[in-house]
Amino acid sequence: MTDSISAAGSSCEAVIAAADFPVFVVTTRAGDENSGCLVGFTAQVSIDPLRFLVGLSQRNHTHAVAARADRLNVHLLGRDRVELAALFGSETGDEIDKFTRCAWHPDRHGLPVLDEAAGWFGGAILERHDFGDHTVLLLAPDTGAAPPADISTLRFLMVDHLEPGHDA
Length: 168
Fold this sequence. Notes:
Blueprint: H1 3-19, E1 24-30, E2 33-39, E3 42-46, E4 51-57, H2 61-66, E5 71-76, H3 82-90, E6 104-106, E7 112-114, E8 119-130, E9 134-145, H4 156-159
Antiparallel strand pairs: 1-2, 1-5, 3-4, 4-9, 5-8, 6-7, 8-9
């Protein structure tokens, strides 16, 4: 790697860290299998029609379940929900059932909704694209519950100390 590419990568990572984006927990269901993980690669990409991107690590258990699913739920966490973020970010569904360790209920499509989430939305998966070590899923949000207006959200720098359940 040349010095200029290395410097650009370091600069990009520094800018992104300084932005301190919110993190989300994504849940899904395929067949009778629930799965969920903490995600940091997300973005709203259209207003009308409303569209949202979610990046899932290809090494993640949730990636394998989402590959067979037709929907995802995206949960916004309050800053006081670090333990819930740790459950979905530091544990792997390859080894434990995360949903036996938290409160949740099924939405009208049967996907898990985390009871401790500040707000959430769900949508159909319209497209999947391989972006290197992550697959990006394009969602068409169509259901959910808004967070309170005064929510203080969980951000990347609040959870960057967590050890992931899988390498990214």
